[in-house]
Amino acid sequence: MEILWTLLALCILFAIIGRLVFRRGGGGIQLSRPGAPDAADPAAYGFAFQEELDVRLPGPDQDLLDVLAVVQGTQDFKPAQRLLAGTPKEGERRWQRVQAFAGAASLELAERPGVSGAWLRAWRSEAPKDAGGAQVHAEFLVQQAWRSSSAGRDDFRIILEEARTICGEAALLAPGDPVPYIVELAVARGLAYPRPELDHLWAKVMDRAPHHMGAHLAALHYHCEKWHGSRAQADEFATSAAARAPRGSLLSALPLFAVHEHVPDVVLVSDFYRTAVVSRAMEGALHAVHQARHDDPALPQVRHLLAFFLVGAERWSEAMDQFAALDGFVGAVPWTLSEDPAATYAVCRALAVAGYEANGGSPATLRRP
């Protein structure tokens, strides 16, 4: 699946390049020799070099990065425990931090089996009643299942069944916290919960965090055609959430994520990114970005996907606005679906720079957030 997404992204990008390189007349992108003085240079815009891009997070969270460095350097879980204890349970930030801690432990274990990730084991054994530790443990199991196995296999189901049990423990430790139920949404997808059971789980999420973007993104997967729903069901779920979104909510961007979930299932014609469905979804996402708080933790996730679609639609200036606002972090869809998120992001960003400059843009004209 990762290879498929990488190839898909590259095919889209090179298709756009092909249309523009061979376009006659002004405004098209022309190929330049490497190092040529008129070659588009992302570094001229202050963008990070590919090797500097952080693949762990969708956007900045310096407190989390500082704590991760300490935890991984000392294998002491207590800084992570304190950070989660001080993170409000209602917002997006706690969910993102739980994912980040779980992902760090999972990657450590993959790199050094049986040695690294000891801090998470110590967290659970020394503080079994700590809600944050239970949430990270449950999410760790979910990530392990998806990373190390395939849906339907016995080991996959065994790991997710254990994750389901830990989700229940975590929910008891923090009754008003939506995170255990958000984690279980991935379990529901992997274990193919019947629809009534999924609806019951979703009701628990809505009781605690009715406008939680991360929860809606997790639930959207279940409703998609490649899992347990259909394109129509995913679109209905996304558009309904967007319609009831309060002012300032990023849920207005959810239909764009629904479109993205089904990109492999549509014919990639040259005008795909200008179709009514895609254009409408992009406009909803742009509206959400413009209305959202600048410090909304979910905002970078929307910007990443929006940048990808805006490049596809050759809306270079708007794409550059997104890259300028989020550059430095690539831990988000669509980049994380490829085997090399930083490289895929860098290719798309370079294309945006080339298109922007071919249409009169320059570092001096780029709007900064």
Overall description:
The chain is built from 16 helices and no strands. It is mainly alpha-helical. The radius of gyration is 21 Å and the shape is globular. The N terminus is likely disordered.
SSE blueprint and pairings:
Blueprint: H1 2-21, H2 62-74, H3 78-85, H4 92-111, H5 118-126, H6 131-148, H7 154-173, H8 179-191, H9 195-208, H10 213-223, H11 231-243, H12 254-261, H13 276-291, H14 299-312, H15 316-326, H16 341-358
Helix pairs in contact: 1-16, 2-3, 4-6, 6-7, 6-8, 7-8, 8-9, 8-10, 10-11, 10-12, 11-12, 12-13, 13-14, 14-15, 15-16
Q: What is the C-alpha radius of gyration, as a whole number of Å?
A: 21 Å
In terms of per-residue confidence, which ranges show pLDDT below 50 for 5 or more consecutive residues? 1-8, 10-38
Major β-sheet, in short?
A: none
- How many E-type strands? 0
Q: Quick one: overall form?
A: globular
Helix content: 55-70%
Separation of the first and last Cα atoms:
35 Å
Alpha-beta classification: mainly alpha
Series of H and E elements: HHHHHHHHHHHHHHHH
Report the portion of residues in β strands: under 5%
Query: What is the mean predicted local confidence, pLDDT?
Result: 88
- Number of H- or I-type helical stretches: 16
Task: Give a brief description.
With 369 residues, the chain is mostly helical. The chain has helices at 2-21, 62-74, 78-85, 92-111, 118-126, 131-148, 154-173, 179-191, 195-208, 213-223, 231-243, 254-261, 276-291, 299-312, 316-326, 341-358.
